[in-house]
Amino acid sequence: MLIVSDKRYVPTTVNMIVLQGEDGLFYYMHRSLYDQCVLLYNTYSTRLDGAYKQLGFENMAAAPEPCHNFTDRTPEPIKILGPFLSLVTGCENLHSIEDMCGAITAMSMSINFSKLFRVPADVRSSIKFSLSVREEYKVQWDRFFMETPLLEQVSFSSTDISMPVTADIAEETAEDVYDSLLNMEVGDIFDEEGEEEVDSPDTEEETAEVEKKEEEAEKPKTGFGMLLNMV
Predict the structure, then answer these.
(1) Is residue 148 part of a domain?
(2) How far is CA 103 from its chain centroid?
(3) What pLDDT score was predicted for residue 230?
(4) What pLDDT is attached to residue 66?
(5) Pseudo-torsion of CA 164, 165, 167, 169, nearest 10°?
(6) CA distance between the termini of the chain
(7) What is residue 27's three-state secondary structure?
(8) Is 181 left (phi over 0), alpha (psi -120 to 50) or beta?
(9) DSSP three-state, residue 188
(10) What is the predicted pLDDT for the residue at 140?
């Protein structure tokens, strides 16, 4: 399939390729047809006369005018399909680029352009298409235009999309948590329910006794004292 339009569509069909010509027109073609063009272009781009001779012409000058118009207007490697327009009986009536691309679309449904030159010459000369191919492509083209959105209709904005947390945000959050842990006292890490309640002293004697125990605990212990505590 080969479609031409002055509007930029965004194909949703798998294996559709978009090319733009020097005149600003956009060409939409299936990957299988594109591959055929690449094979033919690699072989005949520098000797286009050979392609016309394979189709029964003595030289390029003897080919119908639409063949040359197609080659001149379309981008590489599509232009290599120009000689095949001569397979259409009455192709002189293919005046518009739309009709030319439409004829290629209709023919591509029946033949493989890259393999056509491999068949015997007498068989190849019998392959002809009627001028009705100008009408056969319109159904496919209309379906493409109906099902394919225009570039301006496709939103590339991320405002309506739930974006995952980026690496920068995740890194910043981890640093904040780490800093908060450093600034937190050991007792703050535990829940209040897990803390062990300590009775505060009610009298001066109890207070003095508690202070005495704290002082003894802070004094360095001798080896003998450490042994006593271990018993």
Answers:
(1) yes
(2) 30
(3) 52
(4) 93
(5) 160
(6) 95
(7) strand
(8) alpha
(9) helix
(10) 87
The better pLDDT of the pair 178, 9 is held by 9
CB atoms within 10 A of CB 207: 12
**Which residue's structure tokens are 């496919």?**
140
In a domain, 158, yes or no: no
Global pTM value = 0.64
Taking residues 177-206, what's their average pLDDT? Answer: 47
**Which structural domain, as residue segments, surrounds residue 79?**
2-153
Phi, psi of 95 (to 5 degrees): -90, -40
Q: What is the DSSP string of 145-170?
A: HHHS-BGGGS---STTS-PPPPHHHH
At 209 the pLDDT is 65
3-state secondary structure of 107: helix
What does the alpha-carbon distance between residue 78 and residue 83 come to, in Å, rounded to a whole number? 11
Query: How many other C-beta atoms can be found within 10 angstroms of the C-beta atom of residue 53?
Result: 15
Domain count, the chain: 1
Q: For 47-81, what is each residue's pLDDT tens digit? A: 898 999 999 888 888 889 999 999 999 999 999 99
Integer Cα distance of 119 and 123 in angstroms: 7
Q: How many CB atoms lie within 10 A of CB 52?
A: 21
- Residue-wise pLDDT for 90-105, tens only, equals 889 998 999 999 999 9
CA atoms of 198 and 38, how far apart (whole Å): 87
Burial of 60 (0-12, 13-18, 19+ CB in 10 A): middle
Structural domain includes residue 115 = yes
In a domain, 65, yes or no: yes
CB 195 within 8 A of CB 187: yes
